[in-house]
Design goal:
alpha+beta; Tetrahydropterin Synthase, Chain A; Prohibitin; 7 helices; membrane; Band_7/SPFH_dom_sf; transmembrane
């Protein structure tokens, strides 16, 4: 193989150096990400600018630190104590996002692994503070929504001025010792049965009251009707009915004598 001309060697070296420079200078920031520039020959992290998605050209001696800036979530199991000192495991998820314009300050003060260094300790501290106010029964059943809101508020207090926004906290599971859990479930079952029994009693009472009211209404109506029906009115009504029957084309009417009340007796029908 023939040796390359000496004049070609500088060009080859230059091409290699150019490729290295371009690979260091061209930076791609993906969707949902942001970048901050680390300038080793300057003041370190540039906190004045956050670079957005797309291609960027930077000096080859600088480094672009890329972080997710969209909403993210982390889940964790936390061992906490209830108000009566019982050891409880709480499983939760938290949604958060770093402040886009302050991404440089976040990395400068808390580092690239700010989730482990900042967020996780704040969540654990908030969970211990909030859960420590409640009994196991409250944690297991009725207070779940309130606890989530209180943890969220406490986390925001812990992270105030730390360049991270917490959006939501979800308490997914509260794990109690089996003996405590079984006792709570028995108590809840008894309370539910008691509520159902009270509901049946109230329903039966209302039905009885309804029957009494309806019977009283009918009795009052009959009494009023009886008081209003005089002998004269009854006689007139009987005469009207007799006339209608006699006018019917489908009936043959024979009137013989009269009844005890003075009304005619009607025989025959076809």
């Amino acid at each position: 193989m023939e040796k390359l001309p000496k004049i070609a060697l500088p060009f080859i070296v230059g091409a290699i150096v150019l490729v290295i420079i371009l690979s260091k200078s061209l930076v791609t920031i993906g969707p949902g990400e942001g970048g901050v520039l680390f300038e080793p020959l300057g003041d370190g992290i540039n906190t004045e600018r956050t670079y957005g998605e797309g291609f960027h050209i930077v000096a080859p001696w600088n480094d672009m630190i890329v972080q997710k800036v969209r909403q993210q979530s982390i889940s964790d199991n936390m061992n906490v104590l209830s108000v009566n000192g019982l050891d409880i495991t709480v499983s939760g998820t938290i949604w958060f996002e770093p402040e886009y314009k302050n991404l440089g300050k976040l990395i400068q003060t808390k580092g690239e692994d700010y989730i482990r260094e900042l967020l996780s300790p704040a969540i654990n501290a908030a969970a211990k503070s909030v859960v420590g106010r409640y009994t196991p029964e409250q944690l297991y059943s009725s207070k779940r929504d309130i606890i989530e809101l209180e943890i969220l508020e406490q986390v925001r207090i812990e992270l105030e001025g730390q360049y991270v926004n917490v959006k939501r906290v979800l308490v997914e599971n509260v794990k109690l010792p089996n003996t405590i859990k079984d006792a709570i479930e028995r108590k809840l079952k008894q309370e539910q049965e008691s509520l159902e029994y009270e509901f049946r009693l109230v329903t039966a009472k209302k039905e009885a009251e309804k029957v009494i009211i309806e019977a009283q209404g009918k009795a009052d109506a009959n009494r009023i009707l009886s008081a209003s029906l005089t002998d004269k009115i009854l006689q007139d009504k009987g005469i009207e009915a007799t006339v209608k029957l006699s006018e019917s084309s489908n009936s043959k009417v024979i009137v013989i004598g009269s009844g005890d009340s003075g009304m005619p007796i009607i025989l025959g029908n076809q």
